[in-house]
Amino acid sequence: MKLGIVEYQGWGKVRELSKALNILGSRNVMLVVGSTSYVASGAKPIVDVLLSPYNVNRFIVSSSLPNIGTIAEGVSIARSSGADVVVGIGGGNVLDTAKCIAVLSTQLIDDYKSLITKKIPLIGKSLPKILIPTTAGTGSEATQFAVIYMEKQKYSLDNKIVFPEFAIIDPGLTSSLNPYITACTGIDALAQAIEAFWSVRSTDESKRYSSDAITSILPVLYEVVNNPYAKHREVMTCGSNLAGKAINIARTTAPHSVSYPISAHFGVQHGHAVALTLPSIFDYNGAVEEDTVQDKRGISYVLDTMGELCLMFDTTDCLYVKHKLECLLDLIGLERRLSKLGVTESGVDIVLNEGFNPERVINNPRVLTRDALEVMLRKIY
């Protein structure tokens, strides 16, 4: 158990769903699943049998990003069905949607926009949540926040009541992932771990999680995309969970902030969008100076931190890590050019205007300026 979450990890652990439901004393299950992942992951035949003794309302998430319309619909179903637990099975989109449904369905006020934007505080309760990821990358099963998009703007529920009560991490459910989704979710987990390590909110605990995640993911990411074995899948699910624990403490930073408008406006998969600026921002953070340092622990601390990260890539040079990350993206099949991903010239301006999510950019160890970001984006256009 960690952070109030009971975890079951390992092959075949999806069957522990029955144990979790029994512990909670649940009868009416709100089952939140992806439109294709529930079947493709192999979860459906197992979970359908496990849930046969329960009253189940299945809610299918067909949207590509967690959005307020889908969540509001789910809340209505949870309430009308008398759900006493929410079970989320899928990728990060599904898990975040499940968390939002569980939290918002218990609130006394239905002004979701005000709750999401924190104009109205959340009351301190939620339906219990059991989360079962079918990808290895988001770490949503380990965090107290959930992403929501409203009018193509990214927001987050961020509260201890968002934590799931149970997380079931079964590598077998990731075995059917295609190479592209494996690459996107894998690089997302790696980015989370890197960003949490250099975040101004990092702690000794979060850095341990980050370091363990990075050193686990780096040696297997190429293989799990191009030549996956069972062990690779297992390492990736563990690494993703560790990265989730790291960002739960330290949060993400600039690469994630810049990714949100790229995904919202141009449909680029989240992890792929994060990866686009990760190499450049790594090198950028390594060149921090006294007048650009944003971490209160000072420039020496930030430089030491970047040095520690470099050593995880077997070098002492941030520019070399930039090149190594770019090479890794090529090897796992992730396009690095914005123009080839449907981002227009005017789209670069959209990213520049919307890529400074304050919850993320202020966590970056070096101040990210609009001019610096524009240089990065133009270079990868």
Question: What does the secondary structure layout of this molecule look like, with pairings?
Answer:
Elements: E1 6-9, H1 17-24, E2 28-34, H2 37-40, H3 43-50, E3 55-61, H4 68-81, E4 85-90, H5 92-104, H6 112-116, E5 129-133, E6 145-150, E7 153-158, E8 166-169, H7 179-198, H8 204-217, H9 221-226, H10 230-250, H11 254-266, H12 270-286, H13 299-312, H14 318-331, H15 345-354, H16 358-361, H17 370-379
Parallel strand pairs: 1-8, 2-3, 2-4, 4-5, 5-8
Antiparallel strand pairs: 6-7
Summarize the structure.
The protein has 381 residues and is α/β, with parallel strands linked by helices. Helix content is 51%, strand content 12%.
Task: Give a written overview of the molecule.
- With 381 residues, the chain is α/β, with parallel strands linked by helices.
- The chain folds into 2 domains: 6-174, Rossmann fold (3-Layer(aba) Sandwich); 179-379, Dehydroquinate synthase-like, alpha domain (Up-down Bundle).
- It is built from 17 helices and 8 strands.
- It has helices spanning 17-24, 37-40, 43-50, 68-81, 92-104, 112-116, 179-198, 204-217, 221-226, 230-250, 254-266, 270-286, 299-312, 318-331, 345-354, 358-361, 370-379; strands at 6-9, 28-34, 55-61, 85-90, 129-133, 145-150, 153-158, 166-169.
- The strands form 2 sheets. A 6-stranded parallel beta sheet has the order 1-8-5-4-2-3, with helices on both faces.
- Strand 6 (145-150) and strand 7 form a beta hairpin.
- Helix 7 packs antiparallel against helix 8 and helix 12 (270-286) packs antiparallel against helix 14.
- It starts with 5 loop residues before the first strand and ends with a helix.
